[in-house]
């Protein structure tokens, strides 16, 4: 009886081992199928990002500085719309934000905000301007001196536009904060980051001032500086909850650079700097 029991036990053990072996083989045979593949879709020659439109869905838009255009593409990367931006003579397109529907108007029209700047060689200072327009070019709001703005949604669901207006023609430079009530609401928050203000002056020549503001009890925050090719040039730990970093940039070649403020458990804040 004992021999039979041992044989049965051995047979069961062999059966279990065989089953486990088959399972392991099947796992490794199917291993490539359980991992998603990263596949390229397309490459654009200009800076761009995604936006979520209230009625037209997900779109990808880019900024063509040379042509003074905002081009908007469908998810399959076919061209959807081209919006021509009015840039005065001796001015240059700087940024495009808040490509949206139902945010700046009540009729769900396609609108956007764009920024441009000029350089005063005699006074050696920059002047900025921002405009909010419909896709046909109709100006909804003109913001002289505006270098940066963001949209904040309040607890009651209303949306406010906060614009920072700089005047670099005076020393020390002046800054005003203008607040506007908006008729609509935004559905994509990727472009807003109320906790941070933009670096100044921008474009810069000798020094760049980078302000930052962290949430209470934030630890392990970092700021990283990159060139246009994505190479990290330096990284610093942010020890204080708020402050302004003064960074010498005179040794860097002219061009476009980016800095990123990283905090645990929060989206990173990314901004662009132009060095002349």
Could you list some keywords that capture this structure?
disordered N terminus; mainly beta; Immunoglobulin-like; single chain; globular; 276 residues; four-stranded antiparallel β-sheet
Description:
The chain is mostly beta strands. The protein folds into 3 domains: 33 residues; 153 residues, no CATH class; 84 residues, Immunoglobulin-like (Sandwich). It is built from 1 helix and 17 strands. A 4-stranded antiparallel β-sheet has the order 1-2-3-4, with no helix packed on it. Strands 5-6-7-8 form a 4-stranded antiparallel β-sheet, with no helix packed on it. A 4-stranded antiparallel β-sheet has the order 14-13-16-17, with no helix packed on it.
Summarize the structure.
By secondary structure, the chain is mainly β.
Secondary-structure blueprint of this entry?
Elements: H1 2-29, E1 48-53, E2 57-64, E3 69-73, E4 79-84, E5 92-101, E6 110-120, E7 125-134, E8 139-144, E9 146-153, E10 159-167, E11 174-182, E12 207-213, E13 222-227, E14 232-237, E15 242-248, E16 255-262, E17 269-275
Antiparallel strand pairs: 1-2, 2-3, 3-4, 5-6, 6-7, 7-8, 9-10, 10-11, 12-15, 13-14, 13-16, 16-17
